[in-house]
Amino acid sequence: MLNDGRISTDKFQQLLYFPLQKKTSRRSSVSLYLAMVARRQLPDYGGHSEWSTIDDRGFIIDLSLYSSIKVNKDAKAVTIRGSVLSKPLAVALADSGMFTALGNGNTVGAVPYFLGGGASITNSITGYGSDQIISGRMITAKGNLIEVDEHAYPDLLWAIRGAGQFFGLVTQLVVKAYPLSVLGNDRGVIWTGSFVFPLDRAKEVAKVIKPLIDNSSHATAGLIIIVAPPPHRSPSLVIAARFTRNPADTELAYKPLYDLGPMVATGKETPIQNTSDGREAIRAKGDYKRFGIVSLQRFDMDAFLESINVWKDLIAECPDTINTAFNF
Questions:
Q1: Cα–Cα distance between 106 and 47 in angstroms, integer?
Q2: Are 328 and 240 within 8 A, CB to CB?
Q3: Residues 6+ apart with CB under 8 A from 177
Q4: 208-237 pLDDT, tens per residue?
Q5: Once rounded to an integer, what is the mean pLDDT over residues 16-27?
Q6: Prior bond to 231 cis, omega within 30?
Q7: Distance (Å, whole) CA 139 – CA 56
Q8: Average pLDDT in the 14-32 region?
Q9: Which end of the chain, C or N, has fewer beta carbons within 10 A?
């Protein structure tokens, strides 16, 4: 460390390596970063960012050599450094008998997930990803390495819980971890399944879904998906359901959906660290897969049904958009 609290260039070189399009030394790359970080911060994590592909006006900060995971069971916390992805973090926690809120993708970067808000299948019992942040380590635009917690920079701690990518380069987070027993069983499993209905039954399903969502007595989670899956491309309503309590209580929690008589109803127990293993096609690099999320205060049945009409009109005007889907 320098006397004024800034991290030294030599130390910074040990932590970070910047692959630039133009040939430059590591030392000049680091100096360039210290001069430009206020203008652009593009950490290289899971590759899911809107800014993962950049031109010669920017650069990517590769934190992969700095990555590490340290679980502290006594403190019920885990320290994440660098570009740790969600799957390795979930596995490390499970191996220690713990879990935390994580996104629905194994290759999602853990640190940016927590910084950006973080929807999770465990939201009903853990809160959002950003709610898990206990403290962080950040390099500011002036090149200062600071520790951010409730005692030092409490306002900044509040800010990084949801908008953390805008205030500096976050190289480390300490986040909450929970014993697997919080999932309602001693095996660290949750129930994962799906219910499939023809799209013309959307109104029936919506009437059942709304009270199910509003019922806080069951730890249910999931997505309602308007989609026309291959090979037959039949417009369908798919409820990708999760139950983060004792799997034996699943049928009671989802009884309203079972009672509707879906075309398909599947489900199984899944270790919490493996809940995103079935999304290889979505995670694959290449092509253009846009996935946006908007937070809503409530499930509005009329707006939901209108979204279906918008989707139908979109496909009628642009047939190739049959590859799109709406998620709720």
A1: 12
A2: no
A3: 71, 72, 73, 76, 77, 78, 93, 96, 98, 99, 100
A4: 998 888 887 888 888 888 988 888 889 999
A5: 40
A6: yes
A7: 23
A8: 41
A9: N
148-159: pLDDT as tens digits: 999 999 999 999
Alpha-carbon radius of gyration of the chain: 22
Q: Which two tokens stand for residue 94?
A: 């499970």
**Residue 8 DSSP symbol:** P
* Helix-then-strand count for the chain, H and E: 11, 14
Query: At 254, is the pLDDT very low, low, confident or very high (cuts 50, 70, 90)?
Result: very high
Residue of 107, 242, 84, 74 whose CA lies nearest to 171 = 84
Question: Chain centroid to CA 144: how far?
Answer: 28
How many C-beta atoms lie closer than 10 Å to residue 31's C-beta? 15
| The pair of three-digit structure tokens given for residue 30, joined into one six-digit string | 């680091």
> What is the rounded distance in angstroms from the CA atom of residue 84 to the CA atom of residue 234?
39
Phi, psi of 101 (to 5 degrees): -70, 130
> What is the b/e burial string over 72-97, where b = at least 16 CB atoms within 10 angstroms of the residue's CB?
eeeeebbbbbbbbbbbebbebbbebe
Q: Are 226 and 237 a contacting pair, CB within 8 Å?
A: yes
Rounded to 10 deg, the angle between the 301-317 and 202-214 helix axes is 140
According to the model, what pLDDT value does residue 18 have?
40
